[in-house]
Give the backbone structure.
Amino acid sequence: MAEFIALIPAAGSGSRMGEDLPKQYRLLAGKPMIYHALHTLCSTVRIGAVCVVLAPDDTEWKRYDWSEFVGKIKVLNCGGATRAESVTNGLKALHAANHVQDHNWILVHDAARPGLSHALVERLLDQLTDDEVGGLLAVPLADTLKRADKAGRVQRTESREYLWQAQTPQMFRAKLLLDALGKAHAGITDDASAVEALGYSPKLVMGDAYNFKVTYPQDLKLAELILQERIATR
Ligand code: CTP
Ligand code: MG
């Protein structure tokens, strides 16, 4: 059994992108967005398997040729209504098929973060392999932080000391992650917050700005530039 398993939730609709096509299939540097993170994770030697969680009614995946990843990827059509549900369903499916053991490390990575580099994955693995809890890539907040009132005026400036922006992959052992997601409240938007709610303190591992989440239409141009450059220098 693989010690490290990546799980990519890719069952979202990309509502903030405002296009009919779910954003994970939007072409970037000539490939569907999800291809880029898949490429990075599949070519990381220490990662034994990469599971992609699609929406049950996904019609896009089969339009593309994924044969270069054969042997390493597993496609699961069990996405749910929220990211947390998609991750939970994916983990349960792996468990049911005996493809995961409780102590295996699961790296959950958003399909919408195509800028993930090998260097970041390796850093995450290096820093967390012997960790008791697990953790996540994140970057310290760069901008000055304002708290607004209801009228959209500044109430006060918040200190940004000790504030980080969470990225993915987020890496936890399978059992802890499944327990945490099973008990999590409905509003969570990442895996670490479910683990935190059980009283654990996940470790913050330094990410980088290239690993941002493509969310709005204006994010596409930057992602395109980053990926074109990466492919040109591969
Ligand atoms: N995701 C998922 N299942 C869902 C919702 C989201 O697997 N029900 C995945 C997305 O496909 C994406 C990742 O979780 O890879 C991060 O979510 P986000 O960036 O919010 O994507 P969407 O939910 O698709 O976008 P939006 O919130 O704008 O609708
Ligand atoms: Mg979403």
Observations:
- The CA atoms of residues 15 and 22 lie 8 Å apart.
